[in-house]
Amino acid sequence: MEMIRVNNLKKSFAGLNVLNDVSFSVNKGETVAVIGHSGSGKSTMLRCLINLERADGGDIIIEGEYLARGGEYPPAKESRRICAKMGMVFQNFNLFPHISVLNNLIYAPVYVMNEKPVSAKERAAQVLKTVGLSDKISAMPRELSGGQKQRVAIARQLMTNPDVLLFDEPTSSLDPQLTGEVLAVMKDLSKKRMTMVVVTHEMGFARSAADRVIFMGDGRIVEEGKPEDIFTNPKDERVKQFIGSIII
């Protein structure tokens, strides 16, 4: 089943083309890693998928429903309903700093989705167990390490039962040890066949956990394929140079 379909996506800022006819799809249960140099349009593409940025042209189709058709969008309420099928994990966590881990997790289910608090709290305990943070349920965000904050951010998105998880450089602000903690959770989700699109500089994750890798350059998809093909036998010279410059 196709979860995401993007056709000829275009986006510019102040006359600068950031996305140029980007087209790809994501199937149910698939982990797609998006790699490339900084400034290649990876994060902008991801933000367009969940309507944090509006495309100037092209189609975005989420589970068969058009979020954008030829750069035109449905009414705001309809757009929110379509985007609610997805959750996004940002590089800077975006936790509410003034409330506990538990309340961060139950906020959307209780106050947006009208779930009963008792049920939401029970689920929160289970989700925190999944990300290895059962002992932090009452902690405040300021008491957590960066890796713990990012795992809470992942847990918060899981609380909304998304069909697709989007990750925008989730480990870019973490040191290697904390990066490992977060990647372990993401790899576990991948093994459980959570549908994920991951913009990342972590080539080890892209190579070992992704089903497919997309390389972006200059706002375009330069090459895509299975990790073993991208990392051991890339066809495009830009991809060859990029892979040759990194240590995995």
Jot down its keywords.
four-stranded antiparallel sheet; 37% helix; six-stranded mixed sheet; 248 residues; alpha/beta
The overall strand count is 10
Distance between the termini: 32 Å
Q: Report the total helices.
A: 9
Question: How large, in whole angstroms, is the Cα Rg?
Answer: 18 Å
Low-confidence stretches: none
* Secondary-structure-derived class: alpha/beta
What is the overall pLDDT average?
Answer: 96
Strand order of the largest sheet: 6-7-8-3-9-10
Percent range for β-strand residues: 25-35%
Q: Write the element-wise H/E pattern from the N-terminal end onward.
A: EEEHEEHEHHHEHEHEEHH
CA-based shape: globular
Q: How much helicity do the residues have? A: 25-40%
**Main sheet specs:** 6 strands, mixed
How would you portray this structure in words?
39% of the residues are buried. A hairpin with a 2-residue loop joins strand 9 and strand 10 (220-225). It is built from 9 helices and 10 strands. Helix 3 (101-111) packs across helix 4 (117-130), helix 4 packs across helix 5 and helix 5 (146-158) packs parallel to helix 6 (176-191). The strands form 2 sheets. Strands 6-7-8-3-9-10 form a 6-stranded mixed beta sheet, sandwiched between helices. A 4-stranded antiparallel beta sheet has the order 2-1-4-5. With 248 residues, it is α/β, with parallel strands linked by helices. The model has no long low-confidence stretch (mean pLDDT 96). 37% of the residues lie in helices and 26% in strands.
